[in-house]
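Backbone-to-sequence.
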């Protein structure tokens, strides 16, 4: 049984993550199976491969730098099948060290899934669609406020001018679960720029539906000894643990 998650990070002002309106994301599993059966390339009309899915001017692009926003404007969208002749969802070995962050400041997200990669069955359970398919459609299950929500994405992914993936990816070039999971997280927030900075505990909760314990540094009652005791307790209880530095 998966234990509660222990998260540690230096103290910083926290903002509440606002998930995008997910009404349109309640696809049925039967719909996904039908699209896969038909085998025609699927395009997600709720998260199109356009600039709107990369940037969010109405929210000042979530405060990302002008340089980063300009980079987003140069990106193209390729399907996984356009990047690799034989794309796969999973490799034989899911390991934390296989997960590589891209050009988004979402280390909180990368850290969370890297921690979960030590228990591959937990990440595999997120994916309702378990294998690659010619339609390029993938369904994943998240938990928002404890309620399950199915998020469906296509396999269009942002790439740079040279064809390399711009955002999170696997060190195994044929493996795409990391990129697709990040895309689903971006869709939940409305665009990729909106997942720049965030809270690691919300990622753990959304992916596992388990409670998290968040411990901040540099508070009045903080001490290295207290942190060490909490780490030992979490280890003894076999909790997943992760840390990050919010910006």
């Amino acid at each position: 049984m998966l234990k509660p998650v222990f998260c540690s990070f230096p103290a910083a002002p926290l903002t509440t993550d606002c998930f995008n309106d997910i009404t349109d994301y309640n696809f049925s599993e039967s719909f996904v199976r039908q699209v896969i059966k038909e085998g025609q390339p699927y395009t997600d009309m709720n998260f199109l491969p356009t600039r709107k899915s990369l940037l969010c001017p109405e929210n000042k692009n979530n405060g990302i730098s002008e340089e980063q926003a300009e980079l987003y404007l140069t990106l193209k969208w390729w399907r996984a099948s356009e990047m690799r002749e034989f794309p796969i969802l999973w490799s034989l070995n899911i390991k934390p060290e296989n997960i590589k962050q891209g050009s988004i400041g979402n280390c909180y997200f990368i850290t969370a899934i890297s921690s979960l990669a030590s228990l591959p069955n937990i990440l595999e359970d997120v994916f309702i669609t378990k294998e690659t398919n010619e339609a390029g459609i993938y369904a994943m299950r998240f938990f928002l406020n404890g309620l399950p929500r199915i998020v469906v994405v296509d396999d269009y992914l942002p790439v740079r001018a040279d064809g390399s993936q711009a955002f999170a990816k696997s060190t195994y070039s044929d493996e795409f679960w990391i990129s697709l999971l990040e895309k689903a997280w971006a869709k939940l927030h409305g665009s990729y720029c909106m997942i720049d900075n965030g809270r690691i505990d919300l990622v753990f909760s959304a992916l596992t539906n388990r409670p998290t314990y968040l411990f901040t540094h540099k508070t009045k009652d903080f001490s290295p000894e207290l942190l060490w005791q909490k780490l030992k307790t979490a280890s003894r209880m076999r909790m997943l643990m992760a840390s990050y530095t919010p910006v």
